[in-house]
């Protein structure tokens, strides 16, 4: 499981410094919508390995958040709750 320190380090890394061969293609991630939101988030983090940098096909994606905006945990929780309603 990722630690807060690891997540913080990942959030600071620029995509130009990341080895793209180590990134996970987000298209292959499977979300079990039967799990509670917190467990889905943990499962997602385990699969994506780096929630700030991942692949979408051949494209590397870098996610950034506004310093005064919501935390990643809050955004992921909202996403997984909304995906269960579909």
Question: Quick summary of this structure?
Answer:
This protein is mostly helical and 86 residues long. It has 3 helices and 2 strands; from the N terminus they run ααββα. It has a two-stranded antiparallel ribbon.
Structure explained in plain terms:
- By secondary structure, the chain is mainly alpha-helical.
- 40% of the residues lie in helices and 9% in strands.
- It has 3 helices and 2 strands.
- The protein has a two-stranded antiparallel ribbon.
- Helix 2 (37-48) packs across helix 3.
- It is globular and about 35 Å long.
- The termini are far apart.
Keywords:
single chain, 86 residues, mainly alpha, two-stranded antiparallel ribbon, globular
Helix-strand layout with pairing:
Elements: H1 4-12, H2 37-48, E1 53-56, E2 59-62, H3 72-84
Antiparallel strand pairs: 1-2
Helix pairs in contact: 2-3
Poorly predicted regions: none
Distance between the termini: 28 Å
For the biggest sheet, the summary is:
2 strands, antiparallel
Helix content range: 25-40%
Computed over alpha carbons, the radius of gyration is 13 Å
Mean pLDDT: 87
The string of secondary-structure elements, in order, is HHEEH
């Amino acid at each position: 499981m990722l630690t807060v320190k690891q997540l913080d380090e990942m959030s600071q890394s620029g995509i130009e410094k990341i080895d793209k061969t180590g990134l996970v293609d987000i298209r292959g991630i499977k979300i079990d919508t039967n799990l509670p939101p917190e467990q889905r988030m943990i499962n997602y983090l385990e699969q994506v390995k780096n929630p700030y940098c991942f692949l979408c096909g051949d494209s590397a994606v870098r996610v950034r958040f506004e310093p005064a905006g919501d935390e990643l945990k809050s955004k992921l929780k909202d996403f997984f709750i909304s995906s269960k309603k579909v």
